[in-house]
Amino acid sequence: MSKEAKSGLQALLTPEESVVVLIDHQPFQFANLHSHEPTMIVNNSVGLAKAAKAFDVPTILTTVLEERGGYLIKQLQDVFPEQKPINRTIINTWEDQVVVDAVKATGRKKLIIAGLWTEVCVAMPAIHAAGEGFEVYVVTDASGGASKETHDMAVRRMLQAGVTPVTWLAVLSEWQRDYAREKTLPGLTDVLLEHGGATGVAFNWETQLLATGRGGTNA
Predict the structure, then answer these.
(1) 52-90 pLDDT, tens digit each
(2) Is residue 78 a contact partner of residue 69, using CB atoms and an 8 Å limit?
(3) Closest Cα partner for 141 from 104, 171, 167, 175?
(4) Which residues form the Isochorismatase-like domain (predicted)?
(5) Active site residues
(6) Which of 16, 29, 114, 121 is positioned for an S-S bond with 139, CB 3.0–4.6 A?
(7) Is the full-model pTM beyond 0.85?
(8) pLDDT tens per residue across span 94-113
């Protein structure tokens, strides 16, 4: 189990300490995804990937038996067009030395995982890596299982192993932390506009009002 602090400022995520691993967002896994609406998982996982890119967080893509289960979904691959996902035969990503070596090469200890399915290809590496001293965060709304029960039971099991559940917007917000950090603010805004749902819609509306001089408040 990870010995890292679970409270206090040091427990929050920073871009400099984080590494992201996206696991098996492939057609075969989506075909039996029933814990969430599939389009929501696509939106959230792509939003997480774009955020990682905007904040210069190392991101590792991996698939399992892609020749049968299908390639990584195009929306994710398009975020990192130059990266070839690590194709595994091992179900537990953390038993694949190529993936482990790629994570360790970053020197980062805050491991952020999202993938399909939660109860299998997310839970296994999350529990395994936590046992090796990594501070593991699982992005629950960019992951999904074969049913709501399997997803929920996996999250409970990971909690017992010291893994921290988190959502993709929480990750993005912790990376930004301060709106005065102007370097990453445009990237944050772009991600929210494209993947933030009502937040993006409201921001576009606010931009429209400001552009037309109608942004004042009534007395």
Answers:
(1) 999 999 999 999 999 999 999 999 999 999 999 999 999
(2) no
(3) 167
(4) 19-168
(5) 121
(6) 114
(7) yes
(8) 999 999 999 999 999 999 99
